[in-house]
């Protein structure tokens, strides 16, 4: 199904479901919901983010994107919108909206970094640091629940696989285009 597969490419059939594979299957070959890593990763990420947003909003008054920005600014205080967007892999508009929400809530503050008033570096306020620490306890509990049944080696392998996928994405696609 690919135009010109690489010599070491895996067969497309690994990821496909075709008519007759299962009762009530598709009319023509398409991606399998259960065997395609990117489909499963997307489904898992969407479900996780939706559930996290709901919980974080109810318990802490922030959404999942805001939590990501709290983590980002804890790891790298003074980040710009562009840097945070590249690091997290989210568009700059979503990062800017989140930072404005955090600023309005008194959790983040911006400092202009040059003559262009749009160039700002962002840090957490004391309230932002305190919120981060409270959410972190909850996030670690969610992570333990999500990783239940995995041993440490499986988790190291899984995170290694995800890191390799991210490297492959970086090599294959130019996000700045």
TrEMBL record:
Give the HTH marR-type domain ranges.
Answer: 38-167
Q: Which GO BP terms, alphabetically? A: response to stress
Signal sequence: where? none
CDD domains per the UniProt record, alphabetical: HTH_ARSR
| Any one GO molecular function term | DNA-binding transcription factor activity
Q: Which domain of life is it from?
A: Bacteria
Query: This protein is called what?
Result: MarR family transcriptional regulator
């Amino acid at each position: 199904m690919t135009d010109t597969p690489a010599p070491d490419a895996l067969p497309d059939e690994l990821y496909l479901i075709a008519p007759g594979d299962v009762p009530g299957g598709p009319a023509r070959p398409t991606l399998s919901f259960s065997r395609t890593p990117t489909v499963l990763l997307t489904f898992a990420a969407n479900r996780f983010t939706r559930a996290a947003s709901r919980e974080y909003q109810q318990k802490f008054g922030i959404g999942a994107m805001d939590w990501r920005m709290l983590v980002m600014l804890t790891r790298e205080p003074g980040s710009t919108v562009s840097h945070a967007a590249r690091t997290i892999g989210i568009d700059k508009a979503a990062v800017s909206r989140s930072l404005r929400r955090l600023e309005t809530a008194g959790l983040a503050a911006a400092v202009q970094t040059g003559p262009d008033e749009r160039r700002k570096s962002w840090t957490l306020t004391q309230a932002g640091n305190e919120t981060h620490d409270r959410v972190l306890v909850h996030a670690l509990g969610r992570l333990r629940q999500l990783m239940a049944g995995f041993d440490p080696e499986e988790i190291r392998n899984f995170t290694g696989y995800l890191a390799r996928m991210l490297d492959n994405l970086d090599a294959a696609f130019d996000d700045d285009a």
